[in-house]
Amino acid sequence: MAMAALTHPNPFHECLEVYGLLRAESNIITSFSIRRRSSHCHGRFVRVAELRSAKSLLLCCWSKEHNSNNNRVDKTWKVASFKGCAAMQQSEAFDSHEEKAEYADCEDLCTSPMGLCDTVVGVLGGGQLGRMLCQAASPMGIKVAILDPAKDCPASAIAYQHVVGSFRDMNAVRDFAKGCGVLTVEIEHVNVETLDSLEREGGDVQPKPFTIRIIQDKYLQKVHFSQHSVPLSDFMQIDNVESLEKASHLFGFPLMIKSRCLAYDGRGNAVARCQGDLMAAVNALGGFERGLYAEKWAPFVKELAVMVARGRDSRLHSFPVVETIQRENICHLVEAPAQVSVEVATRAVRIAEQAVGSLDGAGVFGVELFLLVDGQVLLNEVAPRPHNSGHYSIEACITSQFEQHLRAVLGLPLGETSMKVPAAVMYNVLGEDEGTAGFSAAQKILRRAVSIPGASVHWYEKPDIRKHRKMGHITVVGSTMEVARARMNEILSFSGQITSICSKAETHIKAYQSAVSDHVEKQEESPLIGIIMGSDSDLPVMKAAAEVLDSFGVSYEVTVVSAHRTPLRMVDYAQKAQQRGIKVIIAGAGGAAHLPGMVAALTPLPVIGVPVKASALDGVDSLLSIVQMPKGVPVAVVAIQNATNAGLLALRMLGATDRGILEKIAAYQEDLRKMVTEKAEKLESVGWRQYLNL
Ligand code: ADP
Ligand code: MG
Fold first, then answer.
1. Helix axes 209-216, 192-200, angle to 10 degrees
2. What angle do CA 484, 331, 400 make, to 5 degrees?
3. Is ligand 1 within 6 A of the CB of residue 303?
4. How does residue 264 score in pLDDT terms, banded at 50, 70 and 90?
5. Atom of ligand 1 nearest to the CA of 295
6. In terms of pTM, does the model score above 0.85?
7. Is ligand 1 within 6 A of the CB of residue 388?
8. What are the DSSP calls for 647-663, one per residue?
9. Using CA atoms, how far apart are residues 334 and 654, in angstroms rounded to an integer?
């Protein structure tokens, strides 16, 4: 290899390992990359030893530099090229690469990469998750190749490339990997040994095979998380009748028995309700040989889920907490955001991030959780990929879980995950029947859904339908959870789904039905603004807030909550307001006006105080009591007796995220302007005496 001074920094500076990038079709080494102490280049890396078979060698190096605008730019240089024997000799030379080598003829290749990223993302599996990954990739021009044995699998029609083969087969996975820059999964039941060896050879697998291996085996997963102090239900491995009985003594009944591996959609679970059920449960799962473990029953009040994204830099970024409602162990409905207190949501995210933080590699992870009656949150399980509980994010979040997964595995910046709509409900369209009957039942519900505002239909194009098989899903968004539920209810009740669902989901959907029975009632059931006051004697002042909200058609509730006479009622009201869907609290108080400040201390919602004139000090006492809040606990205060302004301020707060309300406020301001202008014109034209009828 020719030696000469470089016109750019030595590409081997701090070099740790040298890799070549192999172009799959031609077996030509098209590029070469290095791993450095401070950074590494992305691409599909092959071990230097593999270069020996190369017929020609074009060596390049990349560097990431900052331009004058401080933006990061990738630069590529051709280092050298070799043909025939020379290529082989050079590849031998790389086995003992020297850090301080210098290379000649460094021509700036400036490969002008096309679009956002030209790395091919290889996905093991081409089911609905693979399909939605391809859909998310399309607008960004990212190429997603899939490996799936079924020719007509859901992702097949839209993937950049579909390689027909099994993701459990070593050779199929190896061959597939050759054409991909990074490998990821849409199902965890893949051949992890091959992923391990690909990674050892320098392949880029995200999340790491270590993570996939742990998650594949639910028992190992539990052991791993318990070693990392993640709160879980008690569990133990069961290999025989003795250990089964021991588990039942330790954990009691009902007892959850689970298959360690290849379990999904509840297919690996069996419940023993009493001693006599134990062996039947074990046999239903295929016997002890299948590999089983027992889990203490989690008496949950809700099931929650959090999608956690993990970047290549290991930073975590979570989506909102959602509630999942299962039907016969399969996710049936998802509500986003979960209607839980801020404390519970914060706890759920903390535990989800603790679990994902203990794993390795980039991607999104679906974390399933149990919420117990005392507010405790336990981890159920983690999926190392996009997850059913995150489908809502396609319509409801700024970045969907699928886009986020692609961003994560490609090392692109993670996207914003907050919701762009106030509420969403997702419903899984499961096979109700086999064959044509099943397809026409599904079609009925999809057709109904497309006529409902805010509803989006996803159909996975699976060629066959079976009972309980996930065939598609529907997401409905709305301005409040009640609106989203009511819309979903319209879809489900129309299509007769209500008659065929299990009791828990039935209760849920019945709640949906009652929510829509009367529009006015519904408005009263889901107030957005709480108007509270220390005493009914404040009502003549506070009614002005209610009147202004009436004129804007915004729902509210009015009640008396006294900080001094009913302190516990005040605590209860303030703590539950956010969970009930209240967005702003208007609190009127007179004299020693502690109500607004105390409520603000107990809720994360904005509180607007209305100083009410008491008999002695003209309301100045109320004003000062409300306004003098300590740092950290803000209360907005309007003028003494001016509940109208409190109503208008509350509306402006809602208007920040509700365009309809914002437009009405603008119209209200326009009316005010017109009214004042008309008065001014009249005064100017008739003069002040006539104006005052003097
Ligand atoms: P899958 O992999 O099929 O999703 P899970 O372990 O998540 O299996 O179990 C499916 C469902 O079974 C859960 O969503 C939950 O409703 C119920 N379940 C699982 N484990 C327990 C448990 N320990 N106690 C009570 N219910 C459980
Ligand atoms: Mg599960």
1. 160
2. 60
3. yes
4. confident
5. 23
6. no
7. no
8. HHHHHHHHHTT-HHHHH
9. 25
